[in-house]
Amino acid sequence: MEDFKKIPDGAVVIDGRPYLNIEKIPGLPKEVQVIEGIPFVDINTFKEFQNLYTPPGWYWCEFYGGTKEYRCFLIADTLRRAEFFQMDKYNRLLDSSVRPIYQHGGLYVRQDPSHAMPGFYIVSPDKGFRSTDDLALNQYLQMRFLDYEIGQAMNQLFGIQKIFRANEERKVSYQNVHTWLLPIDELAPEKSINEWNTLEYMIRFSSWRTYKDVIVRYNELLERHLETAKLRERADRFQSYLLKFLDALDRVSLTSERNDEMDDHCIFSNNGILVEQDSAAGIPGFYAIKNTTAISRQYSNEAAIAYFRMRFIDYRVRTAMRDVLKIEHAYKLHEDIGQGPHNAPVRIMPIIDIDKYNRIYHFTISEYMKEHDSWQNNAATIQFYNQEMRRHLKKLNLKSEDDLFRSILGEYFGL
């Protein structure tokens, strides 16, 4: 755990951690309770959570459970949610259905703790990171290995066909990288999650006692499945191949990149993986990573290889967006509509006004794209960004890196 250099106003320090002295803070709900120095309040609606008075230097961290529908903890903004979960005194005040069902290699899987939707799982590092590209490459790919395995298990065990994977970045000190695996089978076939406010979609499951038995049953089935599948051993083996890949990357720079013909909107193309300006909106720096190789099966070794390659390239693209284009905030969106994760594009959408759009809860993706879409006004910037990205990815020798990764993955899967 990091040392706390700034103690928020109204705090007392217990075991080296700041906790709120509620007697010093006016404006807090009178229902606030304190156990072991931890202030929390139980409330009935998510709207109440959004309207809770927040003292400077603190934030409310919400979970389903408690004596009502939500239990909200007031936490110093130097403590990230991932670190919160490492502390027993907090976990004892949470509902047991949000405990991790898998924890290994610095990553964990648990039922989403804010919304009691059965089958809604979170894959997260057990330490706090601001964005996905702050993770080391091997840890990022391990997280993608895990989200692929969990998605496949959700399909096999629960019949969940459609999954929305998302990563958001927030302009707050307690931002914590995690990946949603949100079931979206409930949507009408012609509807996309991009047309929904995700909070409105998830809030339908706010009565946690109604769904707890199903959540517990899902958790037990998934935990048992992961044990039977020896996922920890397989994750370690995958990690050994990632280390082999990283070791070999040092020699990739000695090779020369070949030149392929690409249109103006394409910034990368290699062996069935394409990166291009997203056609849905004329937003500079909005990129889609696509697999163009036909793989009919929803889950297979070939499908997994394609998905992992897409995710390796999305890591390189997002890092380049930050380093070259100076795009600080971006959301990663991946909507698998039941054809397998390799057949759904990974979309990296820049967030232009992070203060307004600092949670995916706060807006509808399609409305955001419509608001900022202007092919005519943004044409010159889009062209410039694409040229800079194309030049940078070539300098990285990304095609050679991707070829190497594809070869290593083939070894891992025995192909």
How would you characterize the overall build of this protein?
The chain is an alpha+beta fold. Among the domains are: 1-94, no CATH class; 256-413, 2-Layer Sandwich (HIT family, subunit A). It is built from eleven helices and 16 strands. The strands form three sheets. It has a ten-stranded antiparallel β-sheet with strand order 7-8-9-11-10-15-16-14-13-12. Strands 3-4-6-5 form a four-stranded antiparallel β-sheet. Helix 4 packs antiparallel against helix 7, helix 4 (137-158) crosses helix 8 and helix 7 (231-252) runs antiparallel to helix 11 (398-413). 39% of the residues are buried.
Question: What's a quick, concise take on this entry?
Answer:
By secondary structure, this protein is α+β, with helices and mostly antiparallel strands. It has eleven helices and 16 strands.
For this entry, give a set of tags:
single chain, 415 residues, alpha+beta, HIT family, subunit A, 10-stranded antiparallel β-sheet, 4-stranded antiparallel β-sheet, 11 helices, 16 strands, disordered N terminus
